[in-house]
Write the structure tokens for this entry.
Amino acid sequence: MAPLFLVSALLHAYVGWRLLPALPADPAWALGVLLAASAWLTPTALLARRRHRHLGPALVWAGLLCMGLFSSLFVLTLARDAVWLLAGLADALISVLPGTQGAAPWQGAPLQHASALAVLLAATLVTALGFLNARRTAAVVPVEVPVAGLPPALHGFTVAQISDVHVGPTIRHGYLQRIVDTVNRLGADMVAVTGDLVDGSVAQLGAHVAPLAGLRSRHGTFFVTGNHEYYSGAHAWIEALRRLGLTVLMNEHVVLHHDGDGQAAALVVAGVTDWSAHHFDEAHRSDPHAAIAGAPPDAGVRLLLAHQPRSAAKASEAGFDVQLSGHTHGGQFWPWNLFVRFQQPFTAGLHRLQDLWVYTSRGTGYWGPPKRFGAPSEITLLTLVAAA
């Protein structure tokens, strides 16, 4: 615990060092108090579920809100310092030219004050808008997936996908119930839940996940584990979700016989455990080839549910047509959305990998700070259509 609090203190001290001297007295005093509180609240919120249960949900909320605000403050302070550094280098180059003298305009106190205040206001605005975006019910995003050789019976087959809800400290029963109600209004042929449903144990969150039992679709609801299930007791969650009526796919598949357009066709729905599952249980090692083994060769579509997009390479080798994933949150809020691509092959949206279509959801909830900026949450309605 001590290193986490030390790092938090140092990062907050840096922001205070760079901003407080440049601010007028009242904003500087308010920011100083906020930074001191945030330096303690942010790591406390991260540890609250395991170490400080007696501190209660109000403290967790406060800490996670501080985390979101401080993230923007820190990044914008770095950006401000980078601008001043470049301006100073430019001034140094200009000063050696003949006929130049005196301080550059950007070295004056008024601009220093204005830029520090701009950082504070921008971070506050981004955090407020991010909070509203995170707490609203995710919008429905329609996506058409063109599949070569799609049987007429499967043309128009719909999948409602939710992913990365992260039921936990700030996402509870009511939030999930609104998602379920929205999905049910879509009248989809099947529902896919592509992992990271929870952040906590069954004992803590079982009642808050109960709305999933009310999901309705023609062929049912299918679930695959994400990395956060393994942080939260995956074996217990698998059993709990099965009791709620969800079909949990563990490197296995089911065959759906779908009637459409006066005809019938088979669709294989397969699911793999999370990419990292073997670090927690070797028996759960993710395996797309095992998931498709024994599937009927004449199936019209082979659909894989895989929490992490980086399962796509092996899914393509195994012969899947479509993969539905999540995990990335689309970056959740700027600027972290710029870095997801270094850890995953796809950040968000529909992409092609050889003969495989990969759709990566930006997620239906959020993790950590209740904040989404530049990466809105979504409930995805995917429709299979015949490729032109």
